Amino acid sequence: MPKKLSKKKLAELKRREEEERLRLEEEEKNRIELERERIALAEQDRVTLLKEARLAALERQRIKEEDDKFTPEWQPKLSLAYESRFLELAERKDWHEFLQCSELPDPENESEINSYLTLWRDQQSSTSAQDADDDIPQRNIEQDFKDCNVAIELYHQIEAAMFRAMDRDEERRVHIHKENLGKIAQSTLDTLDDMTAYIMQFSDLYIDQNTDQYANKTSTIDYGLWVNIAKNARKKYVQFDDIDAVCELALKGMALQKIAIRILHMKNCDPLTITAQQRPLMIPIGGIVYMDILHIPPPPSGHKGWTIRKLTSLSKRVKRKPYEQTDAQGNVVDPPSTRVSFVVPSQVLIRKEVPSVAWWDLDKKTWSQEGIDSEKTKYDPESRKITFYTTHLTTALAVVNERVFDVPYRSWFIRPLPRYGRNAAVYTIKPCAHPTEVAYIEDIVIFIFNDQCKMLSPLRPELEHITSKWLEPRVLLQRLAESGINLVVGDEDAQFTDRLPKHSDVEQKAYREMSWLGNVCSFASSKWNQDLQVGQDKVVFRVSQKLFEPSNAIIEDLPPAGGVTFKGLSEEGYFQEPQHLENWENVAYWNFKASFISCKDSSESSLSLETLPNHDTHLNLALCLDERRKDAEVLRRIEEEDLLVCETIRILLSATRPLSWC
């Protein structure tokens, strides 16, 4: 029989049982309450989802109705207006070119280009055939250089045509133009090669007997050729005084070999990078330097007043000699570094204390710095001479910049210039700033007029060849890149920045619709555009509600290159920082809609993409502004726009991609 519990223990047991009962009751009560809350939240979520779905359906319906109305009504009208202005301007350009009486082929006509190249080759072949039997060479070396200069002029015209095809998304034409660029560049190099073989064959007539050199300097080409006639064992380097270049003879016994060294600097032509299958990570600035070691033909000999020249395969064609050496067993080993120096053209803005040098890797089709000792590279800003050590000769060399050196941008804005009528605007970018940069750039300011652009800032002597001219938008950007400022960066370059590029559909939609209004209101960067909440599928930028009132005139003739100045426009307030202007609102873009959002750049709180109170999302920015102003003025102004300048604005925005890189 179990022992009877004491009163104290019985009381304790009852207390515990009561506590357990109360605990279970509390748990049940909490469970019921939580379930009630869960059901309420679920119902609330269901109602919210239904409401959002209903609103989304209404939004889709509203945007579809806007699309059904806007697109058929406005797209043909805009396209027709643009084509009309484009053809009108094209006729004026054709007439201007006709008056110039240019002998160059039409860069858009592949047949004319092929005929030009064939005629050029035939002329050289006939000249060489004639020369082979003549006592005195008839080849006109100066004419060869002139022909090459003309070919480089044609190269730039084809390049401009390629850019126009890119802007029209004509991939086939872009491919054809790239092929033609390669043909022109190769024909130019072939001409210079054949000319070099000719000079070496007739070295007694062309080579300076004191220096063993021939040199020539034109506006586009620096040419230096040293033929080792003297075979001076103590010669350590070759110095080309006429073109201010040096090449060390680093290989043992090199000064005694039957070789020639040629330096060919094509100062404003880069057929390697522009025709590469993939965009290299580095951009040449100041052109390409071809450094070649060449075999030389047997020298002429004299006999009884006759000059005897032995004809070999080297008489008409150059043969390159690899820069390499072998060990005692005959194995090819790495050659010693050789010192090379040349002058960087005056049309290049050097932005690093010591610029980088690279060589063209023919197998990988890219620029490489392997084998170039960057620690020994030196640059003298006064003489503009760069000196470096490399294990790569008989190749193309170049001073290079990183493609992403100028991104991310610090800010950007674009605004109309009403004093110049309805076909002018100004675009400003603040490029990335580097602490070690020796040529700091505050602003890049581009004046837009019709289909042409003129850079107003920075005003530096190195960029005078750009700031003194009106250029097509992508041509201007290409000349800038060649001079040390690159604003054309692709998605593949994003891995070297702290930015994620925007999706193409939403980005290009925004640029297209900004361009429609580019002569009506101003646009500027927003600090929220790179927020994680915005991501890659949305963009945010600022728009000013203030509409500019231009004159009614469309001015056809370009203002004189010196008639539009940074100082003049700056004094009129055209370069004020956007935050000091009135009526700025943030606009958010999705791939199918746009809306004003309540969050401003002055706000210190986190980003909100909520639509501005009492406003809706719309098909495009024009309709957003139309709702905001409630006066139909925006649509009226679009109808009166000069769409030629609108297209130029779109091209500039699409090329520089401020919404991805700022």
From TrEMBL:
<dbReference type="GO" id="GO:0048487">
    <property type="term" value="F:beta-tubulin binding"/>
</dbReference>
<feature type="domain" description="IC97/Casc1 N-terminal">
    <location>
        <begin position="14"/>
        <end position="234"/>
    </location>
</feature>
<feature type="coiled-coil region">
    <location>
        <begin position="3"/>
        <end position="52"/>
    </location>
</feature>
<dbReference type="GO" id="GO:0008017">
    <property type="term" value="F:microtubule binding"/>
</dbReference>
<dbReference type="InterPro" id="IPR023247">
    <property type="entry name" value="IC97/Dnai7-like"/>
</dbReference>
<comment type="similarity">
    <text>Belongs to the DNAI7 family.</text>
</comment>
<dbReference type="Pfam" id="PF15927">
    <property type="entry name" value="Casc1_N"/>
</dbReference>
<protein>
    <recommendedName>
        <fullName>IC97/Casc1 N-terminal domain-containing protein</fullName>
    </recommendedName>
</protein>
<dbReference type="InterPro" id="IPR031826">
    <property type="entry name" value="IC97/Casc1_N"/>
</dbReference>
<keyword id="KW-0175">Coiled coil</keyword>
<dbReference type="GO" id="GO:0005930">
    <property type="term" value="C:axoneme"/>
</dbReference>
